[in-house]
Amino acid sequence: MKEYVYNSYDITLESEGKSENPKGSELESHFMANINGRSHKLTNLSLLHLILSYPLAALLVVPRIMYQAWVLAYKKRLKVYQRPNPTRGMQQISGTIVRKKMTSFDKIAVKLTLQHLKVQCDIYSTSMSLHLPDSTIINIPNKTNESTASPIVLHFPSFQFFRTFVLDGEHIARAISVAFIRGDFVCTSSDLSKFISVLKQSETKSEQFCQLGGWVKAIRNWLNNEAIRSPFEKHKFAYMDHDWTLEEIAILGSEAAETKLEEWLFKKIADFVWDPLRIQERIIEYAIDWQKGVFGMDLVSFQTDADSIIGDFSDDVPHEKREKLRFRELIKYCHI
Question: What is the pLDDT of residues 53-76, one digit of tens each?
Fold first, then answer.
């Protein structure tokens, strides 16, 4: 008996092929597939044929996939559709059937990010309301509760924001620009302006010494291309302080290695499609075009008020258009 995770439920698959629905909750069928084949008698000859042909069939899997991709792309002229993001929790914009659960690194990233945001809220006497992808709402009050203003409300379609915030914690300007332009969080234009202000460095914040900080910095430098500087770095953002434990550093290193492997595999296999890993380079290109006055010539202008959610686009909007529209919004409140 094996257990599988599907549609955020733990499903026990029995030998009869039936699936149990734990705790009486209902599962909705989204996809059904059948497989058909011809039966053969098990003889010495058929077994020999299987032994000789099976390795060849395994080696032909990738070439056959690439051939069918070539047929769809060049013969049938089918444009590339990115798979829906399985980590996004806002169903109306996710376009995906299921949502992945939090990983160990996600939990650490959320904890460390909340700690950092709590410190900044106390410094600037403000509060936040964070809407996580699992429908959890976390309210961060300031220490003195002196502020009577409404809290900064942020919506996170996935946990990617927290991952980016921790993986690039010493370059918050780069982390925030990547996270917003990629769509890792959405908010109103008013809250975006206040959020950027809250993240800036303060003279009253004292630095925290971490004995293992050198390991964390080394992992971050290995993961992130230090030659790529954010165009928003003139804004002095407070970097993330934390007294890391050995266990947290091990999880951080494992996550960095997995990210590096994903980047290498993408470049080797799927480099002909939109590369989500080149977002830092594209932000530099957008900034150069903005300074030249040629950015977004093909974008449709639209007016948004202070209470309108910005940066929220469905998966059917082209990636480049989404990024450019978010960049244009970000640059209103975080000049280069």
Answer: 778 777 888 889 889 988 888 888
Structure tokens at 284: 């530099």
Q: By the 8 A CB rule, do 199 and 168 touch?
A: no
Q: Give Cα 283 distance to the centre of its chain.
A: 16
For residues 274 and 319, the answer to whether their CB atoms sit within 8 Å is yes
Are 183 and 326 a contacting pair, CB within 8 Å? yes
Given a cut of 50, the residues of the chain with pLDDT beneath it are 1-26, 89-92, 206, 209
